[in-house]
Description:
Elements: E1 2-5, E2 8-11, E3 21-24, E4 30-36, E5 39-44, E6 49-54, E7 62-65, E8 71-76, E9 80-85, E10 96-101, E11 109-112, E12 118-124, E13 127-132, E14 137-142, E15 149-152, E16 158-163, E17 167-172, E18 177-182
Antiparallel strand pairs: 1-2, 2-3, 4-5, 5-6, 6-7, 8-9, 9-10, 10-11, 12-13, 13-14, 14-15, 16-17, 17-18
Amino acid sequence: MYWVTPGTVRWTAKDGSDVVHTIASGQDGPAGLVVQLGVAYWTNFLGGTVVGLDTSGDAGVQVFAAGQGFPSGITVDIGNLYWANNVGDADGGTPAIMRIAKVNMPSPQVLAADQAGPLGVAQYGSHVYWTNNSGGTVMRVSKSGGSAETLAFGQASPAGIAVDARAVYWVNRDDGTVMGLAR
């Protein structure tokens, strides 16, 4: 089980019998976290970076993207990382949903610009899903880009999001509800 605390990324055995291990320290506001095939990926909200660490080696933290605008939620598929820039990036961009390849890391690509405080991000199949905390919406876009689609509006500060074969699920922070919508 992996989690972030102020400045660190940690793990322990799922049964709780193991001690807590710190795999990265000195991080600048770690926020979103996802682990795939032994690699932990997270966003540093205050530092504006998207990073990863192979938990089985000593290679250290690898920076996938820097100069991002308060990156928050993150998700991963077999070839790409996807995250939410909660505000505009260092180059003056708008809050956006971003993508970068995990190998041969070219520059990050904007999948959906002009968002309203994106926080949570999830992926399933051919789409990336996210919540716009300030805008009160739940959205999706094709992983290859294109027009973003609003799935739900009028939500009370949606934040965390998950998706499976049946539905999209999210949490509304202001009213404490857990919502779901068939995909």
